[in-house]
UniProtKB/TrEMBL annotation:
Membrane topology listed for this record: Multi-pass membrane protein
Protein name, per record: Peptide/nickel transport system permease protein
InterPro entries: BP-dependent_transpt_permease, MetI-like, MetI-like_sf, OppC_N
Signal peptide: none
Residue ranges occupied by any ABC transmembrane type-1 domain in the UniProt entry: 75-264
Entry keyword Transport: yes
Family the UniProt entry places it in: Belongs to the binding-protein-dependent transport system permease family.
Pfam families noted in UniProt: BPD_transp_1, OppC_N
Transmembrane spans: 12-34, 81-102, 114-134, 140-158, 196-222, 242-264
Native species: Enterovirga rhinocerotis
SUPFAM superfamilies: MetI-like (SSF161098)
Keywords: Cell membrane, Membrane, Peptide transport, Protein transport, Transmembrane, Transmembrane helix, Transport
GO cellular component terms, semicolon-separated: plasma membrane
BP-aspect Gene Ontology terms: peptide transport; protein transport; transmembrane transport
Amino acid sequence: MLILKKFAQDKSAVIGFAIVVAVVFIAVFGPWLAPYPQDATMSHLTRRLRPPSWAFPFGTDNLGRDILSRVILGARGALKVSLLVVGASMAIGVPLGLAAGYSRGWLSEAIMRVTDVFLALPQLILALALAQLMGPSLESAMIALVATYWPFFTRIVYAETRRLRASLFVDALEGLGASPTRIVFLHILPNAASPIIVRATIGLGFTILVAATLGFLGMGATPPDPDWGLAISQSRTFLPGAWWYATFPGLAILVTVLGFNLLGDGLRDIMDPRLRRSR
């Protein structure tokens, strides 16, 4: 209850939570919320590039498709990509961070040196290179994002595991004969969960942004998928006349990423008592 009370007092975190809930709701019920759900794939050339109106609040694109419907339907794809990428990155990075943080010697050094190599490379450039090698598709973009995002979880979990490894309760467990697996997964991992949750929350928004960037550059989703980044890319030919074509998908990316960032910052303030004392 104390945590919920502190969370409710953080206005920016509450706003972020409301945005995230709204995006999840739109993603789940998108086909029923979209005024023209068939516009995900069908074209209507007789109504192409119409400005915002009562019939089409966000206007139409170059193929006459309702932009509002495609923005709503694109929320599911954006959320799906971010959840799968962050989940896979955690599945790789967290065990590696635990292994590197608890063990000593060559295993720890090998894991962290490989992690440092990936962290030293600009994530977007590395993701672009990997996506280009595998061919432009949504699956290639997701694999490229996972390959560039797992080191962030490894580094965070490694630092927390190292800190907890020197705690008295770990020494006591080792003295009682507890196995390393039991110590790591039943005692160290739960105590390191806070930074993992915060990183995952912020990572969801960041992944949506990078995935949209890949789609904009032609390395992500392919037509006729209702993808936000792809929509902005396709709108470039018709700017500045059809300003609505790029504006509303761009606002969808902006608001969604902002919501995850605000929520992540609020969770960090609540779940990290060291940070609260420093303020």
